[in-house]
Amino acid sequence: MWLLVFIFFLLTFILGWTLFGYVILIWFLGLFRRRKKPNFPDKWPVISVIVPCYNEEEYILNKLADIRALDYPKECVEVFFVDGGSTDNTVSLLKNNIKNDEPYNIVISPNKGKIHQINYALSKVKGDIIVNTDTDSRLKKDALSWIAAEFAEAPDIYVVGAYCRPSNDAMDIEKYYWATQNKWRFMETDARSSSIVIAQCYAFRRGLLEKFPDDVVADDVYIAFLANSMRYRTTYSRYAIATEMRVPRSYAEFFSHKFRKSNAFLRETLRFLYRLPEMGDFCKMMLLTRIAQQLLLPLTFVSWLLITGVLLTMFRFDVVIFGILTLIILLVITNRIFAFVRLPVKEKQYPLDVVVKVYLFTNFILFVTGISYLFFHQESTYAKIKQSNDTDNIFQNNKG
Known about the structure:
Layout: H1 2-33, E1 47-53, H2 60-68, E2 77-83, H3 90-97, E3 104-108, H4 114-122, E4 129-133, E5 137-139, H5 143-152, E6 157-166, H6 172-191, E7 201-205, H7 219-229, E8 233-244, H8 251-271, H9 281-313, H10 317-340, H11 352-372, H12 391-397
Parallel strand pairs: 1-2, 1-4, 2-3, 6-8
Antiparallel strand pairs: 4-7, 5-8, 6-7
């Protein structure tokens, strides 16, 4: 009997930590370490902007306009549009619309795939800071300035991610999902260092790496954990803002997109497991917790349910009630914390059914990621979500 009770409490602790305890701890740590708004540097660093593109004729001209609108000294920025062998009009549209006096370069990567394209551009850039931004990302005009300001805050900040959000016409579950994930990243940043930046727009110091490994699936996850594993810091900015225009339009697309992202996150975090002894204490905790959330959570939850059933048949209602009440209390505290954390852009009040759906969907995706990990493998190239018909209007609305 005592062994069953011990295992039940152990599994309850694992569930409580992975689902709630980690959030409570990083929020508490952030209360004492939260950074002030960064100041713009006295001297602007040279920034190299990399825009990987492949068959992006629907987006490429808006992305070109997006780059042109950036409020950053022209003499301190260079841009590389890196094509991966497009078979549509992406390259010709760029050639016909880039002016001769603009510091924009069109290069053709000899190999397909986003990672190969980024690596090809990295061999050509001259900037002190490298910014990667997707073609379906729309940046606020001061995004590069705030990225430079974030780096100027401390020499150990080696990666900066822009605060990313979905376009205005996204489904409510997509918007709320982004809101909760962004609050998570802000809490990690305040506590010490974010575990991830977003591919829509992130930046890193040139000295961090010469090239990405060819088998990287998620460059945004890899770059953050690379910096964290080297005891540098990753900042998820509240001031550099990007909007993702390519968003899920149905529940099927939502599940597919989030599952792929979750699988890629797990693969990249596992890549750094062997470097655990080199990491600082916070990064060790973050890495192990993130892996546990995706890899161990399914097995832990099923085991917890089975042992709960056994204890109920043995009339140990006191033990079961105590465990369930503990998880409920932790859930309530975590929900209050997420309500307390504020986003840079005014947050919509979502109905209860959206909140419940996102919570259930998120945990279901984590569950599926864990049980399917050994059987599902993906590359860095994938079928893209279709463009919204009113992308141009949304783009204009977000340029302020």
